[in-house]
Every structure is written in C-alpha cells, then in structure tokens.
Amino acid sequence: MSDINPGRTVSLCIMSGKGGVGKTNLSLNLGYALRDMGHKTLLMDCDLGLANLDVLLGLAPEKNLQDLLAGRVDAGEVVQTVEDGLDILPAASGVPEMVEMDENQQDSLMDTLNGIITGYDFLLLDLGAGISGTVLSLARMAQMRVVLVTPEPTSLTDGYAVIKVLNAKYGVRDFLVVVNQASAQEARETFERLNNACINFLGFELMHLGHVRQDKAMTQAVLHQTALARHAPQCPAIKDITTLASRVARFRDDNLDTIAARKPLRQIPFVTR
Ligand SMILES: Nc1ncnc2c1ncn2[C@@H]1O[C@H](COP(=O)(O)OP(=O)(O)OP(=O)(O)O)[C@@H](O)[C@H]1O
Ligand SMILES: [Mg+2]
Q: What is the mean pLDDT of the chain?
C-alpha cells in the first residue's frame, strides 16, 4: 500500500492512565466541535473491552468494529452518520479478547481503517484507559496523542505511566496534554507537574493543549444521552473544548503537506515535532 493520504486525514487518539477521567465525553464533543468548524470527522470507539461512545449518543448499533475486523460486514454497514459531517464507528462492549491484539490483528485493523478513513479530515480514537497492548499499539499508530488527566494525583501518576510506557516501548516522545475538570490555573499547575516529571525522568517535554472546566451540564448531557455540544452548546466546558478543537485544526492546517504524504495510521510512531 502506498504511503499517500489523499483524504489528508489527521488521526488523534485520546488516552489516559486512570479510567473515568472524561476521555469518551471529550472525544465526542471534540468531534462535534471539529464538525461544527467544517471538518469532516470520524469518531471511532477504540475502547475495545468496554465500548460506550454509542451509549452517550443513545444509539444501539447492530454492527460494530469487531464485525468489521472479522470480515462479517463492510465498512458502509458499520459507520453511522450522527450528523452531516460527523460519523461514528462503534465497537462492541464486553469482548475480552479484543483487549489484547496480536501483531496480525493490529496490521489488519490498521489496513482496514486506513481504507475507510480517507475523505475525513479527522479520525478521533477514543481509547480505553490503561496500558493494555491494544491501547499502546493504537496510541502509537495515531499521528497525535492526547493524554487526558485531571488534577487528582492518581490521575497524574497514571498519566505519567502511560507516557513512560509508550516512550519505553515505541520511542514515542510527542504528547499533548489536556487537563479535565480544572480551572485554567489548576490546569497550568497540573501540566507543570507532569511536564517536570517527563523532563527530569524521561528527557523530553510535553505540550499543553488546554483544559476543560468542570461543568455540571456534562453530567446532565450524559443522563440525556445527548452530546454536551448539542445539549448545552454555550456551556463553559463546550467553550473550552471548542478552543481545543481550534488548536487541533490549526495543527492540521499547518502540517497539511506532511500529513498528505503519510498514512493516517501506521506502525511506526509519528514524530510531529
Ligand atoms: N468537564 C467535566 N465536567 C463534569 N463532569 C465531567 C467532565 N468530564 C467528564 N465528566 C464526567 O465524568 C464521567 C466519566 O466520563 P467518561 O465516560 O467520558 O470518562 P472515560 O475517561 O471515557 O472513562 P473510561 O476510562 O471508563 O472509558 C462522566 O459521567 C462525565 O459526566
Ligand atoms: Mg471511555
């Protein structure tokens, strides 16, 4: 397969060490924000053990990523349109064997995905928490990696662990950090703590993409099974997520030539700086 990316798709994964820090809600609302800016986006549920992106949208998909990988269905039967310009590729939940993928499964997943994501501006991968083999291999395949943390010390320690393992295993050194459920000041302090650990112990710096404020509208949106971007489009968390989306979109604009010459996902880690 050639290394040309005619759709100029940028892949971005959202990961965390600790579970429950807000990855799925961030992925979902970032998808809406990018779509609202005119970027065609595919949201992919990569929490292959405990998928739930579809639940946040009140969808009950009949076919999923696992069916696609098993060759039981075509991409067209699995990808669902949420809104014009925003599609979702759902996954099955409670499928323990998908938590770990061998090299062949990883290659097959990558080839399948590279085949269907041309035409999108962004591919957002909502990863499962932790450092399972599948999480790590998907994280290294993506062009951009967001590590989501909250100011809680446990979240920070676990976020550092993810970075450390990806660096040790695959040599990945480029990470964007988003601090969730934090004010701008708390986010700066949290980022500095994580960044200092990386500088001192791993020898590289992190990039601070931004933060998302704690917002009770998020809980309401989850209960209503509606994305916050539609449930309360003017709320503080959506304002913050829109800022994150603009930064991500600017990255794509600034790097279009490089991006267009590469597959959106590949087995060799991308170095974006
Ligand atoms: N900015 C926020 N303000 C208030 N609540 C939030 C915010 N972000 C996330 N939450 C809440 O945190 C909970 C967990 O969010 P989410 O499911 O997105 O986490 P996750 O990291 O994907 O979890 P998992 O690791 O299980 O996949 C949700 O109930 C959501 O309402
Ligand atoms: Mg999740």
A: 91
